[in-house]
Amino acid sequence: MGSKKRPSSSTEDFDGEENAPADGVTPEFVKEPKKGRIFDEKTEAEDAPPPAIPLSLKPMERKKKRKTMDKERHRLDSENKEQSQAKKSSERPPEDQTSSPSLSSSNLPGFHIDVFRDLSSLDSSVREAAAEKLVAELRDVQKAYEKLENKKEQNGAVQLEAEKDDGMEHCAPTLRYAIRRLIRGVSSSRECARQGFALGLTAVVGAIRTIEVESVMKLMVDMLEISSSMKGQEARDCLLGHLFAYGALARSGRIATDWILDNSTSLVKDFTSQVISLAGKKRYLSEPAVAVILEMVEKLPVEALLSQVLKAPGMHEWFEKAAEVGDPDALFLALKLQERVHDSEVLGKLLPYPFSHDNFFTRDHLLYLAPCFKESTFCTPRVHSLWPLVANLLIPESSSQDEDAAASSSKKHKKVRKENSFGDVAKNICSFCEVVVEGSLLSSSHDRKHLALNVLLLLLPRLPVSCIQVVLSNKLVHCLADILSNKGSWLYNAAQLFLKELLNWVGDDDDRRVAVIVSLQKHSNGKFDSITRTQAVKELVAKFNTGPGCLLFVHNLMSLFVDEGALTDEPSDQSQTTDENSEMGSTEDKEPPVSGNTDFLKNWVIDTMPRVLKNLKLDSNVKSLVHTEKEKFIEEKFRVQTEIMKFLAVQGLFSSSLGTEVTSFELQEKFKWPKAAASSSLCRMCIEQLQLLLEDAQKGEGSHILNGLEFNDLGSYFMCFLNTLCNIPSVSLYRTLSNEDERAFKKLQEMESKLCHEERRMRPEPDANKLHAVRYLLIQLLLQVLLRPGEFSEAALELNICYKKAFPAVAHGDSSEEEDQFDDNEAPEMMDVLVDTLLSLLPQSSGPICFAVEQVFRFICDDITDAGLLQMLRVVKKDLKPPRHQAASSDGDEDDDDFLGIEEAEETDEAEVVETGDTDDHADDSEGMLGAEGSDGEVTKNDEEDSERIDGDEATNEEVTKNDKDLSLDDSDSGMDDDAMFRMDSYIARIFKERKISGNDSAQSQLTPFKLRVLSLLEIYLQKNPGKPQVLMVYSYLVQAFVNSHSTEGSEHVRQRIGGILQKKIFKAKDYPKGDDIQLSNLSILLEKSLKLASRSRYKTVSSLAQTSSFWILKIIHSQKFSKSELEGVVSIFRNILNDYFNSKKSRLKPGFVKEVIRRHPWLGLQLFRFLLEKCGSAKSEFRRIEMLDLIDCIMKSCISTGKAEKDKDSSSKTKLLKKHLHALCELIQELLSNLPKKQSRRGEVHRFCTRVLHAVSALSLNKSFLKALKPETYFLCESQLGDAFLPFRMPTK
Predict the structure, then answer these.
(1) DSSP string, 1088-1108
(2) N or C: which terminal CB in the chain sees fewer CB atoms within 10 Å?
């Protein structure tokens, strides 16, 4: 159907209304070349196509009629094709000449109608090329037509609608056809036909002046007339066709040109009236109709606007009723016309007279225009054209630039003028946001809320910083919080987009960031992130990384805290942010956006302010910075620290009795308090944050010293500030102190002041750092006295006395009754009291107090006494409840005499057996941290074989659940008297003071942090004193606490911390205990207990730790250079352990561990050689006998000379040793070969051992002695079972 060519009288078929011929218009001649058909002026009368389909028919009837016409066309196509073929075959020249007189006589150029198809292409470039081609061909046709003398004769027998009164008598028939075709095309919805035909109409009307615009407008009305029967898509296509046709005429520029040539014409007025009439037919036509009018207005002079456009019928009525019905398009048109006319009186009441930005944005006028703003949501989600214009009027582009210029301007009069303009802009923005955004849009439907967010996004790029808090108002923040708190909300994506764009707009501008944070938090009561489930505020706060930016943020937070107007409770009126169609959850299920308690916002301010300093850090590559840059950074950070410190001190420590403002003439500052007195919880929070601030400052000072920089003393600044405020009569502490607390408070102030002067005098000596650490502890303790009254006054007084004794230079004869008692001969050592006092601060103190204690302890740990060290160790060892397998009736202090807490074996039930097995499996992860060094691989290699040595009946529950106990050095508590014991218990009692704790579980959980803090002090001690003999005492207590923690629930953290300290600070330390004070008897006892732990503990972590500790103790013994007789006790310990291994099935000793010990200490193996030979020969367990053969082989290898450097004396001694034990060795071989194991693998181990014995004998040239020691039956066993390995030992046959 599509492959057949149409007859010369047919037109191109288009889908839609442009497909139908224009009311009987037919081309006179159409020829179809290869590249398109050519339209000429003449045709045969009989070739005329059937008449066009009437538009009044129904769609189904039109469809049937179109099918009938298509069939007729196809029939004519086939007939014409046959006729043309017949003519070509007959080759009759006379007939050809007579059939073409019209073609030869026609002087008009051809016209390609394929351009109409290209005008509807989806490709814009194809449409533009088609429009250019259309204009070029029609211009040539019109020029040729105008040159004809007798136009009627050229029209031929049938004229192309020339007889109709369409006002286009001077146009060529082809041009008239094209105009009609273009008008029909703009009403088509096929592809881009509407856009393409409108482009063609614009180009043709604008390029060919012969075409009269009035005629085209008349054709548009006639051809695109909407009948009463048209409905739906058909009527909509006609309306849009009118719109695009009018737009084409306006864009062509012919209307303005014709009026300029003849200002008496009513063309402009008629065109405007028709477009206004079209705009009133459908709501969606109104805004584009205004765009059409403005397209024409841009090309008209002002006179035409006043006399034609504004006087057009319907214009005045449109403006008058716009505000009543809410017509944003009329308002948009009025604003655009006002830009040209500058006389708002002719525009009605829509614009104020005289017009100005300030008059337009008055509250009353905005209320009058509110219906127009509300109704602009009809084009949602697109933003109406009115809003960008209003945004430009509200905030001109130059306003933000003027603000920056005024901020940096040095000329006073310019600055005042700029600030006045800013004031007008800010006033307009305030009125607009209050009336339009909040009053009209946010309080209405979802569409209008969406519009409000979009409008604010238009304002953001040019919004002055001073107006951010006006835009981010209470209602807007509530609206965002309501929407973002519910992901199912219809506006959730819109709110997310708004928040994202807001954060992007903030960028790196500190002023914008501060304003946005303050607005969001102020109107959400400090809970914007928690309500919206976002990290918006947190991300903004984290971006403050410069000193000026942090300082700006801190000052705004201070204002937010003390400004009562900002903290007034505004109820969360749901009607302000939702309407009846909004998705609202139950008030019971949904947290309200704003709480009535403003303390939450103040809590956020207090918590956020010190956190700003975390982002204010030197670059990681600090060494590359110039020294001046480092100093500048330190100064900026100190300035921020001091501002935060003053705020926290004023709000947390003091209150004013005379109003809310106090001026300090000494500091030349004014301090403010909120009108409502701060709650005690807020004051406590301020003090806690102040302690953290001082702690961070102390840590930062250490890093500055390492980098060679001078530091600023924030603690000294704080004490001076505190003393100054205390001297102001109208300022007092926020709470009344008791006599003891007040006394301690003043003593701490006095001591800190003296130490500060002494520190400055001693700088830069190292002892000044010690005084600095002591001062910070005093400051922290002073704050702690205020924070927790009645708890630290005693410790503060004791600490004050200790420091007076430690630093006599600061006392200057100042003595008291307590000091006199302290000087008594029976009084304890000053260092012991100091340690005792420091320990008393740890149980319930805050983190900053503990850090200050650690810093002080770092300087005094070198002078600590054994008694003081013992106090600390007893805290780590102390447990509030007995181990899980210990009898409930046993005394809790009975284990004080047990050094490592290894309990005797006891019967347990089956459930404990399973529990123990699970514990061993769980301990595998920590064994790597606490494992032995070289022997761990061999220790774990034999786990499977361990299970074979103990059969079902032998693996009793008693062995599996055996507790680790009954190991003691001597009376470990002998160094503590009753008073010291009582003081240690008082530390524990402090944990429960003023706390209602029920049960031992809660008590144990409170004791754990105390132990961890004491462990930190012990770690400092070990780090600074790795070679002192006291390390052995620390080791003993830590191992005992580590073992006990396995039988105490809830002590996992303590166990891990102790294990880490033992490994890193003791076993792997660069130094180890040395000196004459170390006694072998003590080391032997420690070694014995470690070996028992390694052989009997059911916990893999404990066993592994015991093996490592054994290596460490042996290293200490070896370094002391004891004599052989003294070392006999060490050998005896190993004999006992190995004897237990052979005789008791409960022993868990790993042969690999003993082998590693002998490898590191060969002398020990030589001493145990005889014992091992005898035990292997008489061992009852086949498995353990085979295991120990490897150990004997290891000792024999040490007897063989491996290098020339070995001395002859040592070689001969080892030869004598082996020769001395040849009889025992032969007996062992006889026993092994006589009772070979049943398993093939074990028999192989026996054969390999015997072979290695023969190799050792040969290497030491003891063949003869060996043969003499062999019994006949042993000889025959070796000869029969060892094969070729025994050949060198065979005796010659007689």
Answers:
(1) HHHHHHHHH-S-HHHHHHHHH
(2) C
